[in-house]
Amino acid sequence: MSHRLLAVLALVAGLALAGCGDDADSGGTATDDAPTSASADASGGGGTPQGDAAPADVTCEYPTDDQLPVAKEVDPPPSTPSVGGSVPATLQTTLGDLKITLDAADAPCTVNSFVSLAQQGYFDDSPCHRLTTLAEGGIAVLQCGDPTGTGTGGPGYTYADETRGDEQYGPGVLAMANRGPDTNGSQFFIVYDDSPLPPDYTVFGTVDPASLKPIEDLAAQGTVPGEGGMTAPAEKVTINAVSFG
């Protein structure tokens, strides 16, 4: 298996997206306090993102992506981020509520996209389609963010990496999957054990330590064959909604 998260999410034209397809696909991770499932409204992203004022000097670009099928129709994010600093959120899943903290200080355009997608209900009722283990694939990640569940779907746009070159992918890291430089979309992965990945995947948040336990328990149940040659969780995992508070 390729160590590029881009590669695993089998991509268009026969490519597997690692971050977004290989070991992870085009798409990201999360942590911290946020509302529970009951607080999410019917359209998805319940609550208002809490954080610092958005940086005034940051402009984001989200060009159209004509390489991946559009998984769910959404509007592209605004070019100016709506929030800054640390943003608490909750992934409401069939594993329970996973508390995450988004890092809009170091990854403003990534968080801006994630928040926009969540508020439009993009992640609602979407599966986490890929699970890898250290024993089987050399990395330990749970990949989500493609409503089609195939690892080949995206939001219809891409955006640039927000990496420094010294990223490390240890337990609790939330990062974007991709299929190459500057091909971030909607797919993201949660790292639940130290994973030797190159610093090619934008880290945009963390997952609360207590919320890693359900993922570790999930991994202990093993994997089954998934779409495009990927391994999927033996127990199906679905993101019901993403909420902020």
Automatic annotation (TrEMBL):
<feature type="region of interest" description="Disordered">
    <location>
        <begin position="68"/>
        <end position="88"/>
    </location>
</feature>
<dbReference type="Pfam" id="PF00160">
    <property type="entry name" value="Pro_isomerase"/>
</dbReference>
<dbReference type="GO" id="GO:0003755">
    <property type="term" value="F:peptidyl-prolyl cis-trans isomerase activity"/>
</dbReference>
<feature type="signal peptide">
    <location>
        <begin position="1"/>
        <end position="18"/>
    </location>
</feature>
<dbReference type="InterPro" id="IPR044666">
    <property type="entry name" value="Cyclophilin_A-like"/>
</dbReference>
<protein>
    <recommendedName>
        <fullName>Peptidyl-prolyl cis-trans isomerase</fullName>
        <ecNumber>5.2.1.8</ecNumber>
    </recommendedName>
</protein>
<feature type="compositionally biased region" description="Low complexity">
    <location>
        <begin position="24"/>
        <end position="42"/>
    </location>
</feature>
<feature type="domain" description="PPIase cyclophilin-type">
    <location>
        <begin position="92"/>
        <end position="244"/>
    </location>
</feature>
<comment type="function">
    <text>PPIases accelerate the folding of proteins. It catalyzes the cis-trans isomerization of proline imidic peptide bonds in oligopeptides.</text>
</comment>
<dbReference type="InterPro" id="IPR002130">
    <property type="entry name" value="Cyclophilin-type_PPIase_dom"/>
</dbReference>
<keyword id="KW-0732">Signal</keyword>
<keyword id="KW-0697">Rotamase</keyword>
<comment type="similarity">
    <text>Belongs to the cyclophilin-type PPIase family.</text>
</comment>
<feature type="region of interest" description="Disordered">
    <location>
        <begin position="24"/>
        <end position="56"/>
    </location>
</feature>
<keyword id="KW-0413">Isomerase</keyword>
<dbReference type="InterPro" id="IPR029000">
    <property type="entry name" value="Cyclophilin-like_dom_sf"/>
</dbReference>
